[in-house]
TrEMBL record:
<feature type="domain" description="YchJ-like middle NTF2-like">
    <location>
        <begin position="30"/>
        <end position="104"/>
    </location>
</feature>
<dbReference type="InterPro" id="IPR048469">
    <property type="entry name" value="YchJ-like_M"/>
</dbReference>
<protein>
    <submittedName>
        <fullName>SEC-C motif</fullName>
    </submittedName>
</protein>
<dbReference type="InterPro" id="IPR004027">
    <property type="entry name" value="SEC_C_motif"/>
</dbReference>
<dbReference type="Pfam" id="PF02810">
    <property type="entry name" value="SEC-C"/>
</dbReference>
<dbReference type="Pfam" id="PF17775">
    <property type="entry name" value="YchJ_M-like"/>
</dbReference>
<dbReference type="InterPro" id="IPR032710">
    <property type="entry name" value="NTF2-like_dom_sf"/>
</dbReference>
Length: 115
């Protein structure tokens, strides 16, 4: 049975973010990178999250915290509002909201670029 991609695209995971998360394909733009990272949170894939964080944040140092967070968080959905920048520029911005429940409390992560 095929599984729809958690990113909200209404496409099968194996045809959408799955190949990006597995490393078979590179995210073609900031929006796909954000969608694939959201999927990694849903699928509890700390390796992909760490691989795609900027090296300066030192994500490997808090791997245990990332993994521990998986046990207490249920991801409910992702909405992307806007994307700017491109792969060619090596910089991109995505405005989004990710909805989740953490330790039984509904919450959201809102990231909006202010120009």
């Amino acid at each position: 049975m095929s599984q729809l991609c958690p990113c909200g695209s209404a496409v099968e995971y194996s045809l959408c973010c799955g190949p990006i998360v597995s490393g078979e394909r590179v995210a073609p733009d900031p929006s796909h990178l954000m969608r694939s990272r959201y999927c990694a949170f849903v699928m509890k894939d700390a390796n992909y999250l760490i691989r795609t964080w900027h090296p300066a944040c030192g994500a490997t140092a808090f791997r245990d915290d990332i993994v521990a967070g998986f046990a207490h968080t249920e991801w409910l959905g992702l909405t992307i509002f806007e994307e700017s920048g491109s792969d060619a520029e090596n910089t991109g911005y995505v405005s989004f909201v990710a909805r989740f429940i953490e330790q039984g409390i509904p919450a959201r992560l809102l990231n909006v670029r202010v120009s």
